[in-house]
Amino acid sequence: MTLTIIRGNGETGRAGLTNGRVQNAIASASASTGVDFHYLYHQARIESGFNPNAHATTSSASGLYQFTTQTWLGVIKNHGSEHGLSWAANAITKGSDGHYYVSDDTTRQEILALRQNPETSAAMAGEYASDNKDVLEAKLGREANSTDLYMAHFLGPAGATRFLKAKDANPDQSAASVMPAAARANRWVFYDKSGNPRSLQDVYQRFASRFNQSTPAASTPADSGTPTDSASDLARMQLAALNGTSDGTTVTEAGGSPLPTAQSLLTPSPQTARLAYLMLASLGV
User: Is this prediction's pTM over 0.90?
Assistant: First the structure.
C-alpha cells in the first residue's frame, strides 16, 4: 500500500510499503528454519525497520536484514540450495583467503540483489542465526540468547565471540577499543551523541532492550472470507503493529536518498508507526 507522511516543512512524501509480503516472509522463515519468530521480527525491525530496500552508506550492508556482501555470499553458498537457489550456491566459490567469489559479474550482481527479496533475505537470516547459535554456544559454553545472536549478525560470529568474552571479563571497557573496525562503521552504536565511547555493557544492553520488547498480536476477522495460509495467519497475528525503529543514521532508500528523520514526522499514528524505518537515530537518543 502507499502511505502519506507529512514532513516538518509541510512537504508531503510517499513511501510505498509491501508490509504484507514482508510479514509473511518473516513468518515463513521462522517456520522453515526453526528460528524464533520473536528474534527474526525484532532483528528486521532493528536492522532496516522492515524496509527490504534499505542500504547502508558506511558499509556494503543491504536489504531487510542488512547483510554485507561477504556474509551474504557465504550464507547463500552454505544454504542457498536448501531454498531453491542451487544456481546461486553453485556459482559461489570460497578462496584460500576465506573470501567468497563469483566469477561472472552479472551472476554476482543477481545474487547480491537477492538481499532485497524479503523471502530470500528472511530465510537466509534464519539460517545464519541458526549457524551462529551453534558457534556461539560452542565458544561460550552456554545457551545463546536473542541479543547474543544479534551480536553475531552485527559483528560476525568471530567478532561476537570476542565482544561477548571481553564483556564477561570487563564489561566497563570501551566497546570501540575491542571492536575498532565495527565502531568506525557504526559510530551511533559505539559512541553517544557527545562522542563519548560506550562501554561493552552499554552497547550490549542497548541491543538487549530491543529484544525485550513485545511482539504485538492481533486477531483477524474469522469471517473475512479471505483465504489464508498458516504463514500469513501467523504474520497477521504477530506483526499487526510495527512499533520499532531502525538503529542506524545511514540507512537510505535504494535510490540513495537519505530517509527523513524521526523528528520530521508529525502526529504519530498507526500509519506513521508503519514507517518505523524512518526513525534512524534511535540508538543515539
Answer: no
